[in-house]
Amino acid sequence: MNLNEKDTKKYILITLIIMFIGSVALAWYMSSNMHTDVSKERFRLTKIYKKIKDETYAYDKVKGKQIYMNLCMRCHKADGTGSGMYPPLLNSKSPIIADPAKIIAVMVHGLQGPIIRGVITYSGAMPGFKRVETTDLTHVLNYVRTELNTFEDIIPHILVIEAKIDTITRATPYREADLITTKN
Ligand code: HEC
């Protein structure tokens, strides 16, 4: 082996080592960054949680409707009748709307079809709204339950925050079968 060949091998080896260290460092950096995002968000929500724990939440129908028009109307229609691949929310027999724990979960993380409603199978997907503030989420889901349907109980804000904290690392929408029912 002449000197040149030896040098080339040395350089290749050094380059490989540098690439290896680089990728380990990058992976570490990315995972620690993700971790910081989650713990920051958990901290932020826990602070709000503690603050509102003793507060009484008042459902605001006007706000609920406003948020519905901003976030939900484009798929479920202004009057909640839905269309095509979007199920109706008005006078719905949906077991999701009937169950506070289920509708909260779907609001936060979304829903992946198929779901069967009457004779129709909906095979779409709804995005979650975890970036929307929890008070707004609470107003809109109370709007869906009490104005578009005939439920009379108001879902408290605290349940939405709890659900958000408990599922903070979740990144995918729910399938209907995975939804956990409200414990009685
Ligand atoms: C981008 C379109 C889109 C938007 C925006 C949207 N949804 Fe949906 N939603 C869907 C689809 C699609 C489904 C059905 C998913 C499936 O096929 O399983 C659905 C399902 C639902 C269900 C379950 C219905 C049932 O029969 O069980 C509820 C409740 C719901 N949406 C509420 C809302 C609310 C409240 C908003 C606004 C905050 C909203 N959605 C915004 C597309 C949307």
Structure description:
- The protein is mostly helical and 184 residues long.
- It has two domains: 1-55; 61-178, Cytochrome Bc1 Complex, Chain D, domain 2 (Orthogonal Bundle).
- The chain has seven helices and five strands; from the N terminus they run αααααββββααβ.
- It has helices at 3-52, 61-71, 73-76, 95-98, 100-109, 134-146, 157-166, and strands at 110-112, 115-117, 120-122, 125-127, 174-175.
- It has a three-stranded mixed sheet with strand order 4-1-5. Strands 2-3 form a two-stranded antiparallel sheet.
- The mean pLDDT is 90.
- The structure holds heme C.
Write the layout of secondary structure elements.
Blueprint: H1 3-52, H2 61-71, H3 73-76, H4 95-98, H5 100-109, E1 110-112, E2 115-117, E3 120-122, E4 125-127, H6 134-146, H7 157-166, E5 174-175
Parallel strand pairs: 1-5
Antiparallel strand pairs: 1-4, 2-3
The structure holds heme C.
The site of heme C has 29 residues, from α3, α4, α5, β2 and β4.
